Amino acid sequence: MANEANHDFECKALQQFGGHKTDDDPDHKLRQEKMESLAADYLSRACQKLFWEEVREAMANMHPTICFSRKIGVGSLDLACMMAPKIGYRVIDREIIEYIANKARINSKSVEIFDESHPGYVKAFLNRFSGERSFPFSSYSKNLFAAFFFLATSEPTIFVGRGAHLVLPREKVFAVRCISSKQYRVQRLSDSLSVSQKEAEEILEQADLDQRRFFSMVYQKSEAPPSEFDVVINFDYFHNPDQIADFLLRLFVLKFRQGRAMESLFA
């Protein structure tokens, strides 16, 4: 039961905490179309060396990016979706990122060209976390990083999940960590999906395990220290999403001084 529930939770509840996704769900259809369109655009260009040279150049002038890291189920995706239209950004979450990375993994040529166009990047990245240790670097990891670069340079973006703040240039990232007690997350999931607290707890335990495995596999990390982030929000003590969103946007503007157009939002 936990595995089946976890599939629904990871693929739908993390997006809206609402119901099950079906082929008749118009929101699901739009989302699927968006993922397929992004993946097709990425795959059609990722095998061209010129494209990656353009991406590398664009990294120097990329828009400041907002990256959410979160405890599963705390509500960071809802928060991102509230912030995005206020500043003209799009939201890219775990499901979209993984869809692109997994599609790209089939095509090894894109990874080879990514490596050629970013010489030394992979080694430098590994050194940030490994010290003297060495470990294998998978094609999935490379495609994940390449997808982050592609998405971050193609349009102003808010990322939710999968460690984007660890990959993109830190000076271009506003990194937010969303946490809460397990009780808060269980109650929120139970209410949102109309399931028992016991079932909600089973879902979260599996989702937390999957998240820990992912970060261990891709980043060789077992925790997310506060020093990685610009802001850490504990949802046990802040309960108004609108106020949290406005607070974070103020800090975002303060960090990057994004001009009068954005500052006028808070005048």
Description of the molecule:
This protein is an alpha/beta fold. The protein is built from 13 helices and 5 strands. The chain has one domain (2-266): 3-Layer(aba) Sandwich (Rossmann fold). It has helices at 2-16, 26-46, 49-60, 76-87, 94-105, 108-117, 121-130, 139-154, 164-167, 182-193, 197-219, 241-256, 260-263; strands at 65-70, 90-93, 157-160, 173-179, 231-234. It has a 5-stranded parallel sheet. Helix 10 packs across helix 11 (197-219). It starts with a helix and ends with a helix.
Write a short abstract of this structure.
The chain has 267 residues and is of the alpha/beta class.
Provide key terms for this protein.
267 residues, alpha/beta, Rossmann fold, five-stranded parallel beta sheet, 13 helices, 5 strands, 9% strand, globular, disordered N terminus
What's the arrangement of secondary structure elements?
Elements: H1 2-16, H2 26-46, H3 49-60, E1 65-70, H4 76-87, E2 90-93, H5 94-105, H6 108-117, H7 121-130, H8 139-154, E3 157-160, H9 164-167, E4 173-179, H10 182-193, H11 197-219, E5 231-234, H12 241-256, H13 260-263
Parallel strand pairs: 1-3, 1-4, 2-3, 4-5
Q: Uncertain spans, ≥5 residues at pLDDT below 50?
A: 1-23, 129-135
**Strands of the biggest beta sheet: in what spatial order?**
2-3-1-4-5
The residue-averaged pLDDT reads: 78
The dominant shape is globular
How many separate helices? 13
Strand content: 5-15%
CATH architecture: 3-Layer(aba) Sandwich
